[in-house]
Amino acid sequence: MDDGCGMFHVQMIVHPDRAAKDSTVPEHNETDEELLRNEVQHILTKATESDSTAAKVLKSLVDSVKEGFADSAYRDRDAAVAAEKKAAQDMKDAKEAAGLYSRLDGLSDAEMKRLLQLTENGKNSPVFSGELMKDLDFHGRDGQEGLLLLAQNLEGGGRDGQMSDTERRLRDALSANLATATRPDSPLGPSGGVPSEWAEKLIRTAREGNDLPQQAPGSLSGGATGLGILTKLMGSGDAVYDRSLLSAAGDEIRDYETHTKDPYPGIGDNWKGTQEDPMGGLMKAMSRNPQAAESYFDPHQNDNLDYFLKERDWPGSDVEGEMPDDLVKTSARSSFGDALEAAATGRLPGTPLHKEIPALHSAVQADIFEQTVNYYGEQSKGQQDALPAALRHSMGDMVGDYASDVHQILGKDLNGSSEFNHLDIDRESLTRVMRGAAEDPKAFQTMHQSQSAVIAEGLQHFGKDSFEHPDPELRAWVKQSSSVLGYMDGVRGDVIYDMGQAQKDTNAWNKMMNYHVIGAPITGIPLVGDTMQRLVDVGTAEYMNDLNAHVDKETRENMADHFSNGRRQMDAMLEQRAVDTGVSRADLDRSPGEYEDNLQALEESWYNHGIKGADQAMGERY
User: Fold this and answer.
1) Angle formed by the axes of helices 441-459 and 403-411, to 10°?
2) pLDDT band for position 517 (50/70/90)?
3) Which residues pair with 2 in a beta bridge?
4) Which pTM was predicted?
5) Given a cut of 80, is residue 159 above it in pLDDT?
6) I need a labelling partner for 145 at 20 to 30 A (CA). Which of 286, 300, 450, 619 fits?
7) What is the DSSP string of 171-213?
8) CA 49 to CA 52: how far, in whole Å?
9) Distance, CA of 502 to CA of 549 (rounded, Å)
10) Which residues of 419-452 are buried (b: 16+ CB within 10 A; e: fewer)?
11) Phi, psi dihedral angles at 2 (to 5 degrees)
12) Model confidence over 176-215: pLDDT tens digits?
């Protein structure tokens, strides 16, 4: 019974059975009363403890974000309590890691390993990462300054100027910690898509630096140096940053370089600028978040795409085309290409193209691709180097991801936009852009592979009757596909011809194109079904036979008479599909016959049409 003042007492009552005649139920004694009291007391104590832990967990959920509850879900109270204990441990670990970081230059090997263990284990924990960012202290500077100084130290090779594997992993973990600390479910994360005060101060500090003398241990330079420190950290490893921080950093760099008379002194006119450009690390980080990249380059929301394509004075751009391939691939504009690819395709650069045929993209993604192709297509009129070398690989991947639309643009005389992603691109602009991308043989490989897959997928829709009797749809598909392969060969021939007498370059290009043998998978182009794989196998193997190693002036001027690889590919794929449907090889040669006199005739005429169309688009005349 409740006493009404937080106390209770136990009162003995008569058991109903004892009122019965001849009852044998034993009487209660004082011990029974004590046992009952102790049991009730134990239950109430447990209930109080349970309520207390529940309150503690709820408070933690509320305190972990600025408004409302964190996006956390627990299956029961025990799981919530376990999470609370982990959060307490994460906070303790973060303080230990911050303490080790403050002594980074003097850590023993064992301490370095402990620091690496702590930061890697906590890289996905908002509690650990947020607390680490707040507790950092390096060279006497805390918070955002400490983080940037620490990042600069790790980027420069740490203790001895030579970056060890441990130090590289530490830098990557620090990048992941920053990404986690600034995501929406973190105390330092954005509110309503706007970066937190902490994140805004980080960006501002990177731009402004601090006022310490340059020789001081805690001196932090601003401008291109400070912004570069931040973005190199963001680009390290494989951390995925929230859109809010990526966009805010991009806006800050753009504002800096457009309002500074000489934003990149000492690096603007040489290859070093292509490596030190602060946009490089940011674009690398942007490419790991396709949704953020799509938003950042959305032409309906901002003019960032125009700025990067048309207006930006890229550091080192004048010498970009003369740099070795390894420097081109690590340049800032190459990272921009990766971010652009992510924005236009919705997938991570370097991952397989969309397996769906046709691949459908969002309206924003399609607009980004369309405007990019149209810009470089217009710029390349009368010249072959308008597409920067650093963008070739990304452009090849983008063209490959829009393969069905590209097939329509090159294979049909469209009177409007393409059917699938509603692209408004003329075939001359597209051809010139493909020509620029094809300077990289791997980019040409991707474009050719993707078209082979589209052609194979289309052929699968036709049965035996279509090969034996007139079928307008099959005839149209053969015509369009042959034209596409003609355009591809026109582009390839032009690249080889422009290499001139540099036989070494020509042979290297052709060697890179030897990408396929029967039975080998096509890299980056997912194929569905054995029939489709067989068609592509046969076609690409035939395409690789007797590739022209050299194109002289005579063959260039009469390319339609000398190039036939694409036509042989189309013939091999068409024949394979006919045989797969049950048409005998003898029937294929019967004349008059649909296959012999119509389908093969269409192959030849429209393949030549494609070659000539490509040459005219690239400025050649017959």
Assistant:
1) 80
2) very low
3) 8
4) 0.86
5) no
6) 286
7) HHHHHHHHHHHTSTTSTTS-BTTBPPHHHHHHHHHHHH--SS-
8) 5
9) 11
10) ebbebebebbbbbbbbbbbbbbbbbbbbbbbbbb
11) -75, 130
12) 999 999 999 998 999 999 999 999 999 999 999 998 988 8
Residue 27 is given by DSSP the state P
Q: Which segment of 81-85, 206-210, 260-264, 567-571 scores lowest on mean pLDDT?
A: 81-85
Judge contact between 94 and 135, C-beta under 8 A.
yes
Nearest in space to 574 (alpha carbons), one of 474, 470, 450: 474
Cα–Cα distance for residue pair 204/153, rounded to 1 Å? 20
In this structure, the dihedral spanned by the alpha carbons of residues 349, 353, 356 and 362, taken in order and rounded to 10 degrees, is 30
3-state helix, strand, coil in the chain (%, to 5): 65, 0, 35
C-alpha 267/C-alpha 322 separation (Å) is 16
Q: Is the distance from CB of 196 to CB of 178 less than 8 angstroms? A: no
Contact criterion met (CB below 8 Å) for 539 and 573: yes
DSSP secondary-structure letter at 8? B
Rounded to whole angstroms, how far apart are CA atoms 135 and 95?
7
DSSP for 352-414, please give it: PPP-SSSPP--HHHHHHHHHHHHHHHHHTTT-S--S-GGGHHHHHHHHHHTHHHHHHHHHS--
Taking every pair of Cα atoms in the chain, the longest distance, rounded to a whole number of angstroms, is 127
Question: Which are the contacts of 108, defined by CB distance < 8 A and separation ≥ 6?
Answer: none
pLDDT for 51-85, tens place per residue? Answer: 666 666 666 555 544 443 444 565 666 676 777 78
373, 429 Cβ separation under 8 angstroms = yes
pLDDT at 503: 64
Q: Which two tokens stand for residue 29?
A: 């004694």
Say which residue the tokens 């702590």 belong to: 118
Q: Is the dihedral of CA 285, 289, 290, 295 positive or negative?
A: negative
DSSP 144-181: HHHHHHHHHHHHTTTTTTS--HHHHHHHHHHHHHHHHH
**Integer Cα distance of 489 and 434 in angstroms:** 11
- Look up tokens 């009797």; give the residue: 469
**Using H for helix, E for strand and C for coil, what is the string for 28-62?**
CCHHHHHHHHHHHHHHHHHHHHHHHHHHHHHHHHH
* Burial class of 557 by CB neighbour count within 10 A (0 to 12, 13 to 18, 19+): middle
**Helices first, then strands: H and E counts in the chain:** 29, 2
Chain position carrying tokens 């049950």:
582
Structure tokens that stand for 25 in this block: 């139920």
Report the alpha-carbon angle 364-369-371, nearest 5. 95
